[in-house]
Amino acid sequence: MFALLLRRYKGMILASILFFYLGCGITLSFIRIDCVSSLSTTNNRKSKDDFNTNLERVEYAVLIVSSPMNEAKRDCIRATWANFVHNIIIENGEHLYKWNHTWTENSVPQDFIKCFFVVGVQGLDSVKLKKIQSEHTRSNDLLILSDFEDSYKNLASKLIHSLEWMSKNLKQLKYIIKCDDDSFVRVDLIVRDLEAFAPEMNGPTISQYVTYKKTLPSYKGLYWGYFDGRARVFLNGKWQEKDWFLCDTYLPYALGGGYVISRSIVDYIAKNSEFLSQYNSEDVSMGVWTAALDGINRVHDTRFDTEWKSRGCDNNMLVRHKQTLSDMFQMYRTLVNSQGTKLCKTEAALRKYYQYNWNSLPSVCCK
């Protein structure tokens, strides 16, 4: 009997199923359109309001050097360590570190720390340019250099352009944390230590990690990272320096995977940019630009894993350079699951670190 009814009303049943799915599809399409429209409106408003108006409240800028086509790397950072800026909160007028991040809860918003992905867009075709503009609309964190062609040989110039912009537009700026888009940065812990110890950087809780030349009554600025003073000058290959003439080695510099400079250094470079020599490596250039500055506290810190190859993973590290997207997500998961106490799934020392000897000549600085 059932089979007879099924054959008799087969057409009606099929038509009903067709219209049911068609109706669902149309409904879901309108829902998706509404969501996209709402998100677009919100992002456009956010981009216009936050990026321009709230710049006046930025005290700590995270300057992330990125290539225009590295959207996947930027999204990875946005989804992982960039969220840790919310672990710095203000209580009774003081900036304090407090783990403030979970899988499910929204972080408390703040606007005194901001990440900027700097990209040059001169020479990009219309499709790539539109993609960059669309990314900025949704993310509100691109520092777009419209009159700058992005390339490796222009890295020093790119850094100068960025520092000029920040010197001009970030009125409350205290420090810049510079890093690459393949670095995992504990921005929260860096800001915590800056608030507690800068510019002297001589607190007992960090003394085992840092070395500096001498203690002064006061400092005019801070240059903080993992320094090298014995590096031989590259005469060929990717890092070739055709215009280098100063000496047989590079001047002492903090390795470019991640370092910190104070507002005083930012302003100095911005004001004197037209007189500064530029070399292929932006970190080498920074070492040269700051070499003649008096009263700058140059601080070597073993928690910066910023060499050409990672030294491994230690839970105390502030920066880990040369990390893949998978590496970043793994460290992020480990930190979230441990409430910020563990960076490494498994700690491992792949290469040795050194303490910088500021009282010796650079050629024997780093044993």
- The total count of strands amounts to 17
Overall shape: it is globular
User: How much is the average pLDDT?
Assistant: 86
Structural class: alpha/beta
Quick one: biggest sheet? 8 strands, mixed
Low-confidence stretches: 17-48
How do the SSEs run, as a string of H and E? HHEHEEEHEHEEHEEEEEHHEEEEHE
Helix content: 25-40%
Proportion of strand residues: 15-25%
Radius of gyration: 25 Å
C-alpha termini separation: 91 Å
Could you name the CATH class?
Alpha Beta
Give the number of helices: 9
Biggest sheet: strands side by side, in what order?
A: 5-4-1-6-12-9-13-8
Any idea what the CATH architecture is? Alpha-Beta Complex
| Annotated CATH topology | Spore Coat Polysaccharide Biosynthesis Protein SpsA, Chain A
Number of separate structural domains = 1
Describe the protein in words.
The chain is of the alpha/beta class. The chain contains nine helices and 17 strands. It has one domain (51-361): Spore Coat Polysaccharide Biosynthesis Protein SpsA, Chain A. The chain has helices at 2-8, 10-53, 71-79, 126-139, 155-169, 187-197, 263-271, 282-290, 325-337; strands at 60-65, 88-91, 94-97, 113-120, 142-145, 175-180, 184-185, 210-212, 221-225, 227-228, 253-254, 258-262, 296-301, 304-305, 312-313, 319-320, 348-349. The strands form five sheets. The protein has an eight-stranded mixed beta sheet with strand order 5-4-1-6-12-9-13-8, with helices on both faces. Helix 2 (10-53) crosses helix 4 and helix 5 packs across helix 8 (282-290). Mean pLDDT is 86; it is low at 17-48.
Task: Produce the secondary structure layout.
Elements: H1 2-8, H2 10-53, E1 60-65, H3 71-79, E2 88-91, E3 94-97, E4 113-120, H4 126-139, E5 142-145, H5 155-169, E6 175-180, E7 184-185, H6 187-197, E8 210-212, E9 221-225, E10 227-228, E11 253-254, E12 258-262, H7 263-271, H8 282-290, E13 296-301, E14 304-305, E15 312-313, E16 319-320, H9 325-337, E17 348-349
